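Supplementary Methods, section 5.1.

A reviewer requested that the exact input to the structure prediction be made available. We therefore reproduce it here, unchanged from the version used in the analyses.
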Amino acid sequence: MQIPLINVHDHACAAQAALSPAAWAYFSGGAADELTLRRNDAAWEQWGLRPRVLQDLRAGHTRCQMLGKSWPMPLLVAPMAYQRWAHPDGESGMALAAAAQSCGFVLSHQTSTPLQDVAAWVAAEAMRGPLWFQLYWQARRDDLCALVQAAESAGYEALVLTVDAPVQGVRDRERRHDLTLPAGVRAVHGARASHEPVPGLCSGVLHRAPTWPDVHWLRQQTRLPILLKGITHSDDARQALDAGVAGIVVSNHGGRVLDTVPATAELLPEIAKLVRNDYPQATLLVDGGIRRGTDLFKALAMGAHAALIGRPAIYGLAHGGARGVAQVLRQLRDEFEMALALCGCPTPDAAHSGYLQKLSPLR
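The structure derived from this sequence is encoded token-by-token as follows.
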């Protein structure tokens, strides 16, 4: 008997059944003991909602502002690598589903589908959300410039530089499996490897890791706004915005890089206060553990302009291709609209901390 797919947890079960053990370990696992992975989910539950009643909701909508533009929905699909490993529809199917549900899409630098092909599928969709491209720093700046120029030409509207993973996390669950990618699945925009011997930590890899001057340099190479993804400290948030980036993403990489980092729901309020008070023109997003429409509402009430989801979308893709992703996003959209209505909050930008209450642990 097939289990009805009525929430993200059901989609996760269906995805696990559809994927190989290695693929499931890659897409669902986290770093080390996965404390941050589990905490990301649980932390949203530590906040309760305080609804208002008898509010006028007749002019309600889900539109939001990001990077100075209005978009239909404050929800984006986060960058995730090798999506064709999860399902042949891959990144194109994921982007199509996001566009069909008026959600944004951030294509991973480690995409298994060319960035031009993905953009061609969705760039002209009238009701889509933002189309952004994620970058990892490259050892050779000319490789990075070529990729940035390709993203600009293809129609991507912002660059998301991931800054919290100069090296890969220690992922115990992955190391128990052979993570050889299937034939035909690879990072199609992978850069040339650098074979220069360099001493230092992590076999010299950190010699090529980006620093703040590299962010300044990247800003000079593109006309696109840049967001930094992987900010967990308010000092880094300030330094990023002082460096002139257009926005930041509060993210601990889904618990996949450094274990025991606090949950993003725990980190967001402090960073949101800084952005709201000192950088009101900046765009602030958050990811990590968003599993319900109420979680999205809580993120906005804490001060984010939008949130990103990763694993829920890949679970939908794994068992149902583009249709499965669309189902996940539609369910989250419906739950979010219900949360707005039931809290007496007509629009996303009307959400604020007064709708939240920190809960005491249940005995």
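The longest helix spans residues 311-343. These observations are discussed further in the main text.
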